[in-house]
Each structure stands twice: as structure tokens, then as C-alpha cells.
Amino acid sequence: MTPHINAPAGAFAETVLMPGDPLRAKYIAENFLENATLVTDVRNMLGYTGEFNGQRISVMGSGMGIPSISIYAKELITEYGVKNIIRIGSCGAVSNKIKLMDVVMAMGASTDSAVNRTRFANTDFAMIADFGLLRNAVDAAEKLDVNYHVGNLYSSDLFYSADEGRYDLMEKYGILGVEMEAAGLYGVAAEYGANALAMMTVTDHLRQGLHLSAEERQQTLNEMIKLTLEAVSQLA
Asked: Which residues pair with 90 in a beta bridge?
């Protein structure tokens, strides 16, 4: 057990899917995994372990923002032996090449957060995904005919920001979309020797003022889960 996870030793699989919302973790466990069991519920941050096509897989909420996901990812890696963490969430598109309901895979994650400078002797550390996980995700997207993009995301500490001009700068530098966790997850994985990937569905377009409906969000969630499980099934 840890201060934030009350699961016993061995309760988590080597691969953990991490949506931000713990109720999404519950939804995934109940609708996509077999023999799913609740293994942690501290602060209602729900975590489950079950099976998909005979493969042991866990799913757990991460909460919102870099500090929250960093706590859970660190403890999963160092206290429970987790080797692979895949963030599945949503982002707001910045690039006009991106459309609503597309999937964005974060090959890299830029950020305005100072956490990775703090961990890397006050210098810049390139936040990148694990290539093996990324390759599996691309293969799965090709197999399932998913419209996907691979590139750089921006993990923001601020959800509400008055500086809309920053989107011009992001697009100039090839940023595909904005979310709040990937750079933190990648930093933790690098520090503690695990593999990480962040995959997002585009639920909003920050430049065009477009948003998915509640029904469309649920549809994209289901498609993202299927894509992620297909990618995970390729792990040795």
C-alpha cells in the first residue's frame, strides 16, 4: 500500500491504462475487461485489474493535471512493478490539420510546467513516448482504420487561460493539441524506468470553437478503448 493506493502487492498488471476520470476506469473495467476486480479506491480514484483476451490488464484513474498523474504513475511503477502506462484521454486541437474525433498520439509532450526541469537539474528534458508502445498504437490504428496523428502535444498547467495568442505559437512549432498530463507522465516514466504513451481523442478544437456532443464523446471513448486494447494485445 501507499498513501494514495490501497491495493495489496501484486494487485496491478504490468500494463495500466490511465483515463483521467476514475468513473471512466470503472466503465472500461465493467465493459471491456473480463473478471475485473476493484483493487484500489482511495479518494475514489478507482483502479481495477481484469483480463482482455486472456491478458492481464489494469485500469486506473489519474485525476487532472501533471501533479495528480505524477503521484499515481510513480507509485504504480515503484511500488507495484508496473512497466507500461498508457494515458487515454482527450485534448483540444490546435492544428487546423486536426479534426474532431481524430486520435492524437503524443510522440512528444511540451509543457509550461516546471516539474521536469525540477527533476532534471533545472535544464530541459525532452518528454518523449516509448517507441514500442507508440509503434503498437500506430499498428492498431492502421488495423482498425482510425484517423490518427503522431506528433507533439502541449501539457498545460492552466485549463482556463486568457492567452489565446499562444495557440498561434504552438501551431507555428507543430503542436497538434493541448491537454494536461502527458508531459508529467513521460517525466515520471523516464525517471523510474518505465514505458509510457499518451493517446487522446480530439473532443474540442481550440482554434475553430468546435466541440463534441455528449453522445459523440462517448462514441470516441469507446473507439479509443478498442484502439488501446488492440495496441496492448501486441505487447509480449
From this structure: 201
Question: Could you report the per-residue pLDDT of 142-197, keeping only the tens digit for each?
Answer: 999 999 999 999 999 998 877 778 999 999 999 999 999 999 999 999 999 999 99
Give, in order, the Cα–Cα distances in Å from 111 to each of 58, 67, 150: 27, 13, 17
Q: What cell was used for 134? A: 507508440
Question: Taking the alpha carbons of 151, 64, 46, 9 in that order, is the dihedral positive or negative?
Answer: positive
- More confident call, 160 vs 11: 11
Active-site positions read 204
Cell numbers given for 129: 513516448
Decide if pLDDT at 46 tops 90.
yes
H/E stretch holding 87 reads strand 84-93
Residues 6+ apart with CB under 8 A from 165: none
Give the Å distances, CA to CA, from 155 to 66, 113, 193: 8, 8, 21
Nearest to 217 by CA among 198, 204, 203: 203
101 grid coordinates: 474525433
The closest of 25, 79, 24, 58 to 232, measured between CA atoms, is 58
Q: Is 127 exposed, middle or buried (0-12, 13-18, 19+ CB in 10 A)?
A: buried
